[in-house]
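Schema walk-through. Below, the input block comes first and the output block second. Nothing else is stored per chain. Lengths vary across the set, and this one has 143 residues.
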Amino acid sequence: MIAPVIGMIASTSSIILLVLLYRLEARRGTRFLKTPRMFFDRVIIAAAQYLDGVFAYVRRDALRGSLHYLFHKVLVLILSLVRGFEQWIKTALVRNKETAHRIATEERTARNKLDEIQAHKQSVALTEEEKQKHKEDALLGKT
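--- output ---
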């Protein structure tokens, strides 16, 4: 708590002293310590011009960097969408292949079973004479 108070007092005192110095210089018509102040003025102006150029460069590069970053993020988003779509297509292809294989296997199995049933039916089929005998036995009630 004491440090901010000291800082405030020092700042206020410095401002008051500078205002008094400028008023005194205005009354006298000349600057106090003219040569060293002109040197410091030139140093400060050169530093301000240098920093202005640096800040202009930083502002330009910051905007350019931000645009590149934004473009990069958009491309990453598009890439993730394309990868998701690719994964969805791969999954659909695998599912389709499995379904096609299962259908082909079921058709072969069903066709083979029907063929087996037909072959068995033909192998155990009764001759016309056996059919006639069974019919007569059924009519006479022998069965």
